[in-house]
Amino acid sequence: MDEFVIMPNHVHGILWIAGVGANNHSPLHSPLPPSRSPQHPRGTSKTIGSVVRGFKIGVTKWMRENHFDGSVWQRNYYEHVIRDDESLNLIRQYILDNPARWMNDHDNPAVGANNHSPLQDNHSPLQSDGNRKEPR
Predict the structure, then answer these.
(1) Which residues contact residue 94 at a Cβ distance below 8 angstroms, ignoring those fewer than 6 apart?
(2) Among residues 117, 4, 116, 113, which one has the least CA distance to residue 51?
(3) pLDDT digits over 9-31, tens only?
């Protein structure tokens, strides 16, 4: 886990995933270990979705054990592949600055809820297509 912030109604964070990709042989193309067979395929325990799902399960369990009721999670999540140091640093700064922008945030119920991608936020360092915004 890299930079992160917990907001009143959402979380921003950067996850580092190591050991996959062209240089580290994607697990999708690795041979099955001896204990596995085609009848028992590999699960999805090493995906972004499984990490998010595990986080949501853990937080929900803690909340229920501590007498918090109700649903706290939106149905989906947003992801973006960070491809270079410049993007990484812009996104880190966006995460660090997020609490200071909360009073004007479209996701703040006091401002007016609006279900939109954080990539559409005017303060996000990224455009809706995931590319870096040009400086204004």
Answers:
(1) 12, 123, 124, 125
(2) 4
(3) 888 999 887 766 555 555 554 45
CB atoms inside a 10 Å sphere around CB 98: 20
For residues 7 and 3, what is the distance between their CA atoms, to the nearest angstrom? Answer: 13
Helices (H), the chain: 48-65, 85-97
- 29/36 Cα distance (integer angstroms): 14
Three-state SS annotation for 106-123: CCCCCCCCCCCCHHHCCC
* The pair of three-digit structure tokens given for residue 87, joined into one six-digit string: 């993007």
Distance CA(78)–CA(54), nearest Å, equals 16
Given the structure tokens 């990484």, which residue do they identify? 88
Q: Are 11 and 118 in contact (CB under 8 A)?
A: no
- Joined tokens for residue 58: 């853990």
pLDDT tens-digit readout, 81-109: 899 999 999 999 999 999 999 998 887 88
Inter-residue contact 84 to 91 (CB < 8 Å): no
The closest of 76, 75, 92 to 126, measured between CA atoms, is 92
